[in-house]
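I am going through a labmate's work and have reached the protein record below. What it holds is a sequence and that sequence's fold in token form. Please read both lines and tell me whether the tokens look consistent with the sequence. Do not assume that whoever made the record got everything right. Thanks in advance; the entry in question is below.
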Amino acid sequence: MTFFLERSVLMDILMTCLLLIVALLISNIVSHYIPLIPTALTQIGFGILISFLFRGFSLEIETEWFLLLFIAPLLYNDGRHFPREELWKMKAPIFGNAIVLVLLTALGGGWFIHLMIPKVPFSAAFALAAILSPTDPVAVNGIAKRVHIPEKILNLVRGESLINDASGLVAFNYAVAAVVTGYFSVHEAMVDFTYMFIVGALLGLFLGLFIAWIRFSLRREGIHDPAFHSLLQIMTPFIIFIIAEDLLHASGVIAVVVGGIVHTLIRERTETLIAEEHVLTENIWSVFTFILNGIVFILLGLNIPASMKATVESPNISNGIAIIYVVAIGTVILGIRLVWAYFFGHFQYRSSQFREEEKPNAVSVLLQTLTGVRGAVTMAGVLSIPYVVDSGDEFPERSLLLFLAAGVILFTLLAATILLPLLSRDKSFEGNELDTIDLSEAKRKLLLTGIDAIRHEMNDENEAAAFELIGDYRRLFHQINPGTRGASSIAFMDNFIEVRHVGLKAERNYIMKAVDTNEMDIATFDSFEKALDFREEALSQTAHAGMLYLIGRMKRGFYRLRRRKQKYEEGQIVSRRLADFQIKSCQAAIEALNEFTLSYNRPDIVKIVISDYERMIRSLKRPKFTYHGNQEEHKELLRIKAMDRERAKIREMFETDEITRDQVKELRMFVNNIESVILQGTTE
């Protein structure tokens, strides 16, 4: 019988998980066809629908379990991907929003709630305002995919969410404890918060380094299984959170964030050696976070009806008054954020010595305000409010507090969904738009950077490996968007053909000069001309280029006839080895291209063509490569150098605002995939 009950419980858990995943998949399909509604709002709606369809269905998760299962891995992943340069550059507004604004929201919001609803004690009102202070960037990210929000504001919301969960939960727990026990000490609260924050950060640093040391030690012992190391990375936030919360009673939230940042710092110095593992891990994380983010909002929707039920059915308060309370509290909470954003923004602008900060305007302040959406942490925290206090009495107005929290979450989500798209169309907002390049162009720049790095490292010992690796990069270069004919692709091909023609023209000038000075016989000249004609014909992709090619060929035909007649009359022919002429023609093309680079707006394309000519010269000088040592080792070292330069190029493009934060993620994955493709080609 015991076995049957255990199996029944396991079956219920399994069916619940399957139901949540099915709802998650359907909600994303719906969001695809109704893009105006953010995915998070759709998922909340599905959660509410499930709660009505399955009357007996309920799923309550304790706050500690919720933080462990959902918040810890999500924040760890955010810490892994948040750019540390931006984190440091925006440290003042991030910590201001995450700590000072949380305290202002808790005090100001708590005072307003108690003033508006006197039957709610100040400590309980303070608890509600405190748990309403953490922001949820997941919903904002969903909205940002459909409307343009400045990268700076998105980074601010993402950065403060890494910390304000901890500060909001600490303030909430102390407020709830004050209600339950009737005792509260500001001094003890400040000491405990400082302890939890500092110890949590130090523990995250230590455990992040310790787990990285374990991974490297295992590799030294010969354990290189990518699946094993990927699983160890996925388990890291859970390990850090449990040790921080249960053993040292520190902030697990801060610990996992610091652990994620430490992981990124270590990864940037080692991922060239273990790219296969990183590709696998990133793929697992993408699926894992997709599931967690979706289920969080479905759970939120599941709990909203139950949280509101008692208040809706209560005869002591009308539904209209309860909704007015929600709108008023939501407006005040966002209003506090608006006032803080305005004054702190002006303070930053005036205190900036070199006026590096932009002067805040009405639109930017409103955008920063509306992106402060409340979400899952608020719901998880408010559901943990106990039913009774130490005296045995019921927790004051618990059901009303749950109703107000759920209502404010929906209010902030709806406000962001409706108003953010309207604000994004404001003309004063256009100046904030980043002058970024498209992803294909950024990928091409990375490949060119890799080729350039290989060329600089090339020597007599590794040239065979270098040419092979450059060939791999060139194939990848031409595979990017091979079937597209967008404006950027057309412009690139036009520029590429133009540069090729410059090189061909220089080669023709050289061979004509060689014939005129009797250095080349007419038979060799004809061979060269046929080869150059073939190459030029391959570049004649348009009608205009094709016509120019035909006219040029006719002119060259008359020139060959004239020179052949002169040669026979003079009878003076100096014969040379064909390879010598080919080398000199390539050198002439390189000289012409180097001069052309000074006045051309696409030096990256010129570098590609020059690289081709240099490769031809080396191969002509040494038709059969002399292998020095293990060329695979040379290729591996060159590949590592190239990828280091590519990652540095990503950081450079991000710092100069050429690419966005989301593009940084895509390009890092692209660099890892380059390695996978090259390694696979080597293996095959």
